[in-house]
């Protein structure tokens, strides 16, 4: 039984980390449970997902919105405490910080190492066809 609780806690942490990634490019703090659940291999409509959401709610990492219909559709608000906890857990796991990730993406987009922008040869015009 104790092992199951540890597994659930690990899944809850992974779910929280994914939720944090959801808000990186979005000024609003709403997170979608479905995306987080699918990312960790949990059925978003199953009882396991409900248990993980309850764990995150009880820890104060996410909040229900005042409108019950939003929570019914799997939308929750990530709290400051949740953001800080996910950031700390990601750093402990060796994941890049959001700033490091943003810089990496910007560097690649400008032709840096690993960029998909390849040097291209100028297009050669075909020789004219003379009749």
Describe it for me?
The protein has one domain: Arc Repressor Mutant, subunit A (Orthogonal Bundle), CATH 1.10.10. 55% of the residues lie in helices and 8% in strands. It has six helices and three strands, in the order αβααβαβαα. The chain has a three-stranded antiparallel β-sheet with strand order 1-3-2. α1 crosses α5. The longest helix is centred in the N-terminal third of the chain and has 22 residues. The protein is globular and about 45 Å long.
The run of helices and strands is HEHHEHEHH
| Count of helical stretches | 6
Classified in CATH, the superfamily is Winged helix-like DNA-binding domain superfamily/Winged helix DNA-binding domain
Task: Quote the CATH topology.
Answer: Arc Repressor Mutant, subunit A
Strands of the widest sheet, in order across it, are 1-3-2
Helix content: 40-55%
Overall structural domain count: 1
Q: Output mean pLDDT.
A: 79
From the alpha-carbon coordinates, what is the Rg to the nearest angstrom?
A: 22 Å
Under CATH at level 1, the class stands as Mainly Alpha
| Poorly predicted tracts of residues | 1-8
Task: Tell me the number of strands.
Answer: 3
> Mind summarizing the main beta sheet?
3 strands, antiparallel
Strand content: 5-15%
Shape: globular
Based on the coordinates given, report the CATH architecture: Orthogonal Bundle
- Class of secondary structure makeup: mainly alpha
